[in-house]
Write a structure and sequence with these properties.
3-stranded antiparallel beta sheet; alpha+beta; 2 domains; single chain
């Protein structure tokens, strides 16, 4: 049996204190009861036995495509400092070692750009690999994020588009 992977590694660099605080809040697990949101570890006693209307990571609460039943962030993260070469400064590192969900990452990043850096962009590349050399199990892609849109480029879609264009040009 083979294992398939979707891997990536990227940062949001040079975070200010307010940016970092906002990101930490967005990455917090919450429970929603009506209009009220509570950190998962700070639910009031009177709601302890009540089923939440929604449970998940805060930044995904307004994502209509998010399925809380899947119950996974889809990536790992760490807040780190780069004091030595000062290229990254204080930064958020997002990564996936086995199976990542770039959709969730770009949802967070687009919200971040809208709130703090509306004139900037961000990108992520990812690899799709397999533990055995199985045909069709390798690929990858890239995402480009601005406040207005998220652009995707997937290796498999690219190849299929090229194949289709080639086939339509072939004489019959």
């Amino acid at each position: 049996m083979a294992d398939s992977y979707l891997q990536f590694s990227q940062v949001i660099k040079n975070l200010t204190e307010p940016e970092e605080a906002w990101l930490k809040e967005q990455l917090q697990s919450i429970c929603v009861f009506g209009e009220e949101k509570y950190p998962e570890d700070a639910i009031p006693a009177e709601l302890a036995d009540v089923n939440a209307d929604w449970t998940g990571v805060s930044f995904l609460h307004d994502n209509n495509d998010y399925d809380p039943e899947w119950d996974s962030l889809g990536f790992k993260y760490s807040f780190l400092n780069d004091f030595d070469n000062k290229v990254l400064g204080r930064h958020l590192w997002v990564y996936a070692e086995e199976f990542g969900n770039p959709d969730n990452v770009v949802w967070l990043v687009q919200k971040f750009l809208k709130k703090f850096r509306p004139d900037q962009c961000w990108s992520l590349t990812y690899a799709i690999t397999c533990s055995k050399p199985r045909v069709g199990e390798f690929g990858g892609g890239a995402l480009f994020v601005t406040t207005d849109k998220i652009e995707w480029q997937n290796a498999c879609d690219f190849v299929e588009k090229q194949r289709s264009a080639f086939e339509t040009k072939k004489p019959t």
